[in-house]
UniProtKB/TrEMBL annotation:
Domain MHD as annotated: residue spans: 169-425
The UniProt record lists the keyword Kinase: no
Organism: Gonapodya prolifera (strain JEL478)
Family annotation (Gene3D superfamilies): 3.30.450.60, Mu homology domain, subdomain B
Keyword Translocase applies: no
PANTHER family assigned to the protein according to its UniProt record, in alphabetical order: AP COMPLEX SUBUNIT MU (PTHR10529)
Pfam families: Adap_comp_sub, Clat_adaptor_s
Compartments, as annotated in UniProt: Cytoplasmic vesicle, Clathrin-coated vesicle membrane
Name of protein: Clathrin adaptor, mu subunit
Family per record: Belongs to the adaptor complexes medium subunit family.
Keywords linked to the UniProt accession: Cytoplasmic vesicle, Membrane, Protein transport, Transport
Length: 438
């Protein structure tokens, strides 16, 4: 990767702060960036993360809140690496300033220049871990204090963890968090489904411990495609991405996830499963519409998972016509409210036990005679969180902590499944009085 310069711009393209790393491109070239963005927006083109001018200047950028982070180069650079570096910049700035926006940039010029100098040298990324940067770039009343000698972690092979960390109680918290993306059409057929998973950790351990994690992933048990020599269910993950602390060579050799962890919170790995997912919370709707008079809804929600599990804070968000009024609701569980600012009604069920089924009926006045275009109606959206449950069936088989002093460590493991983009299309309205009472 070679980035000639990095800029932070406001939404109008005005330079808030910049750092010239190589001096091979005039800094005034940044003035060509915003016209490229505006031209793409006017032509209703999809905005690509890379914009180029006729003279071969490339702008790679990320928009965050009300600022643009832009890297400029004329080299044949690795675009994905530069964009990843810009995302790392955002992460570091948020660690320092809590929020990255134009005002926080203006308030922290001194420390931002220091961070830009430490994180990149002559266009090449250097230290990008916030925890390590905070050890020798500190901020007090917008003033900077720098140690003359960098901490050992900067020159150490393990750049993400410092030496000399001590805790009275040594603990490891591991969360397996899965999000379910689902799209169901008006006929009840699943059009798209996938599981996006992440293993997130909080590590409070003394010294330089080595952790070893075992999962029931098929690939992790056997790299040769043979069936794993273990009991129980195994799953096959796709698009597995690891934190830099994981020893990839060891994983390639014997499928062991072995690592010296950063201190505190971090994401160890992420994965995806594109298997057909059974909808965990199923919702059927019947709509009875009388233009110029009223519209009625009948909804049935069912928890399609085992009875020993419970979904918490379930929200079923159902779109209604913009001019609907005079709402009346009746349901067998939870509460229903009208959210006119969203043109929706929201059915909330605090605890939804597996195998249970609930009904809801809604009545709205409908002064408009004109019918809605069914193709333009937004779908039903469902939000939920199911603790102690994973859709994929992933399991942590073991989590070992090895440290030369031999102290006892306490590992804690949790499983959580939650909604991602979870949508069910509404059926066409009926014009007869067929909706049952509840």
């Amino acid at each position: 990767m070679v980035a000639s310069a990095v800029f932070i711009l406001d939404l109008k393209g005005k330079v808030l702060i910049s750092r010239n790393y190589r001096g091979d491109i005039p800094m005034a070239a940044i003035e060509k960036f915003m016209p490229l963005i505006l031209a793409a927006e006017e032509n209703e083109e999809s905005l690509a993360p890379v914009m180029s001018t006729e003279d071969g200047t490339h702008f790679l950028y990320v928009k965050h809140n009300n600022v643009y982070l832009v890297a400029m180069t004329r080299k044949n650079s690795n675009a994905s690496t530069i964009v990843l570096f810009l995302h790392k910049l955002i992460q570091v700035f948020i660690e320092y300033f809590k929020e990255l926006e134009e005002e926080s940039i203006r308030d922290n010029f001194v420390i931002i220049y220091e961070l830009l100098d430490e994180m990149m040298d002559f266009g090449y990324p250097q230290t990008t871990e916030p925890n390590i940067l905070k050890e020798y770039i500190t901020q007090e009343s917008h003033k900077l204090e720098s140690q003359t000698r960098p901490p050992p972690a900067v020159t150490n092979a393990v750049s993400w963890r410092s030496e000399g960390i001590k805790y009275r109680k040594n603990e490891v918290f591991l969360d397996v968090v899965e999000s379910v993306n689902l799209m169901v059409n008006a006929n009840g057929n699943v059009l798209r489904s996938e599981i996006l998973g992440a293993i997130k950790m909080k590590v409070y351990l003394t010294g330089m411990p080595e952790l070893r994690l075992g999962l029931n992933d098929k690939v992790m048990f056997d790299g040769d495609g043979k069936s794993p020599a273990t009991k129980g269910k195994s799953i096959e993950m796709e698009d597995v991405k690891f934190h830099q602390c994981v020893r990839l060579s060891r994983f390639d050799n014997d499928r062991t996830i072995s690592f010296i962890p950063p201190d505190g919170e971090f994401e160890l790995m992420s994965y995806r499963l594109s298997t057909q997912v059974k909808p965990l919370i199923w919702c059927e709707a019947l709509i009875e519409q009388h233009p110029g008079s009223r519209i009625e809804y009948m909804l049935k929600a069912k928890a399609q998972f085992k009875r020993r599990s419970t979904a918490n804070n379930v929200e079923i968000i159902v779109p209604v016509p913009e001019d609907a009024d005079s709402p009346k609701f009746k349901c067998t569980a939870g509460t229903v409210s009208y959210a006119p600012e969203k043109n929706s009604m929201v059915w909330k069920i605090k605890q939804f036990q597996g195998g249970k089924e609930f009904l809801m009926r809604a009545h709205f006045g409908l002064p408009s005679v004109k019918s809605e275009d069914p193709d333009k109606r937004p779908p039903i959206s469902i939000k939920y969180e199911i603790p102690y449950f994973t859709t994929s069936g992933i399991q942590v088989r073991y989590l070992k902590v090895v440290e030369k002093s031999g102290y006892q460590a306490f590992p804690w493991v949790r499983y959580i499944t939650q909604n991602g983009d979870y949508h069910i299309r509404l059926p066409l309205p009926m014009d007869t009085n067929k909706l049952p009472e509840i």
